[in-house]
Design brief:
The complex is a heterodimer.
Chain A (H helix, E strand, L loop, with lengths): L2 H21 L11 H17 L6 H30 L6 H32 L2
Chain B lengths: L12 H28 L1 E3 L5 E3 L2 H12 L13 H30 L1 H17 L5 E5 L3 H12 L3 E6 L2 H9 L8 E3 L5 H6 L7 E6 L4 H14 L5 E4 L3 H9 L4 E3 L1 H14 L1 H10 L16 E5 L3 H12 L4 E4 L6 H6 L1 E3 L6 H6 L7 E6 L4 H14 L4 E5 L6 H7 L3 E3 L1 H14 L2 H10 L3 H15 L5 E6 L6 H8 L6 H4 L12 E8 L2 E4 L12 E6 L3 H10 L1 H9 L7 H11 L1
Parallel strand pairs in B: 3-4, 3-6, 4-5, 6-7, 7-8, 9-10, 9-12, 10-11, 12-13, 13-14
Antiparallel strand pairs in B: 1-2, 15-18, 16-17, 16-18
Helix pairs in contact in B: 1-2, 1-3, 5-17, 10-11, 10-12, 10-17, 11-19, 22-23
Classes of the chains: A mainly alpha, B alpha/beta.
Amino acid sequence: MNLEKVVFGFFILLALTLNFGFFIGEFDNPAHHNVFELYAALVVSLIATVLKFGERTQIGAILLAASLVADLQLITAAVVWGMSMHVTGVGLTPAVMGSIVSLSGGALMANLASVTILVIETVNMQR
Amino acid sequence: MSELIDVPRHRIVPLVLRRMRAPLLTLIVAYAVSVLGLVLIEGTTAAGEPYRVDFLHAFYFVSYTATTIGFGELPTGFNQAQRLWVVVSLHLLVISWFYAIGTIVGIIRDPVFQRVVTWNRFRRSVSRLVEPFTLVCGYGDTGSQLVREITGGGGRAVVIDWDERQLDGVSVEGLRSFVPHLCGDANFTDNLLAAGLGDPRCRAVLAVTDDDHTNLHIAITTKLLNPRLPVIARAERDETRANMASFGTDYIIDPYLTFAGGFVMAMEAPQAHRLYSWMSVHADTADEERLPPAGRWIVCGYTALGRALYRRLREHGMDLVLVTPDTVPASVMKETTVIGGKGTEAVTLREAGIEAADVAGVIAATDDDTDNLSIVMTARELRGELYLVARQNDRASHAVFEAAAVDRIMESSSIMAVRMLRLLATPMLPRFLQAVRERDDEWIGTLLERWHARVGEASPEVWTLTVEPGEAPALYAALDEGTTVTVAELLRDPRERDLALAAEVLMIERDGGQTLLPGPDHALARGDHVLLCARHGERVRMQRTVTNRDVFRYVASGEQRPDGWLWRRLAARRER
């Protein structure tokens, strides 16, 4: 067992699960989507991205790309949240919540792709 | 021809990213912990009511604190619990920033990283060269002379050398054009490929490092990866020469054998020697030069030069005495007189028989410049009229050797450079000289007198004219139409066709066959390679003849026909 591989897999899976945790719930109901969960998902996603840096393989490149997509979507979701609360002051209306959750849903897809690729690669190694 | 091999550039981004992984992770974690702490700790508003800092403001605060900008406690003043947390997070953040910056600086200063960056930059500047270039491996005395001559003549060069101090010369010497140079080992194929070995614009490879094995490696790599590319290599050892010849290295040059060969020729065939020096790129004042007389030679030092002289002198049945402190192979001992000692003292030279009447001169061939000068000075002291040859090892001591006023200085780097430049500029000339050398010396003498009268005593311009549409369109078109063009017609003066240019056709090569000194009635054919020599300035005139149809028509037939679309039509109407 390789500790590096454990940490790598842990963060990639954690990014997916946290993202899923934030995403699940009534679509436009602010009560079902916790800001701390979004924060945790964003931080873990960033860590997962850095862990994928410097891979020279084709698989590594796709993993990095998926992570970057997830980061982009989560950061956008966080910015939308901050804008609505503090800049425009409209608060978490169903419309705002809907766009935040759908952005995180996009990130969820990217994270899902990451995990799928990881699983495929692991299965291919056969050891 | 097989596809030319291109070498990919080294990837820098993955290298940097992999090393930046740990500092970036530290930064992300430090930020995340600090922001989270600020959000979780309950604050107090100015009115004394409890509130929570939101993520936006927490991130804002952490961002300016981490970079030590410090706008103060925003949006409202912090309470004691918050301040406690800020103290912790401040140290955490600043330390992680320094860690990250330190790592970046470390990467930039890392020799591996710098080597990769220089290598990439070198590869890019070579691939951006537009003109054809010559690859020079080794920037020692020979290499620097070659590069100076090549760039001075308007050509481009690329240099590889492993010694950084020697390469400094490329930037310092003020060469006429920018010369991409790499400090690296020419034994690595990647370096050679980056230097343009597989590039179609590469004209020739010159392997002139001071290591036989490296030169061998360069030659074999070139012949394997890009067989069409001519290789001129330096080789001092017999086995290296044989090895290089075995896989078809185009020209293999040993400076010592070259010198020894020329030296023996000057004695045996003085006229051929005069012809050689007259036609060399850098003519020494050939006629003032004192030619070595026949007789016994005292060779001091059984070095590379000593061995070459020994071999050549013996081959031509000339007598010599070797003076050397080193042990000499038994076969040499048997065939010639060997005196122990350096030859720097009068005693040793006397022992070698310097005072005998049949001694022609002394050759100082040791590897040490001071010894060589000392030998020559001692010999002059003993017998002033002897012919003195001194080997100059270090190019920097040229002034001292000039002052010693010996009859001939043997300096291997310039011998190499001159030969290589001649091979690069006119590869036909050495073949011509070789063919001439087989003739009688008297015959060469009369030939030389004739040329002196026609072309002048100063060294002529020697070049090759290839009869092809690109180089001689007018001549080619005329031959294409079936006109017969003779050598005499080619040599007519385009200003006055009854006069001849101060030029001579030396040799014509056609389909591998040679015609040495073709007569005036010799007809030219398409695809001929014509070797010419002429007084400086005449080449431009001949260029006009072979490129301009009007000039050519005048030269060939004396007819001055009007040209241009309108005049051609008018002339056609007049004829009708």
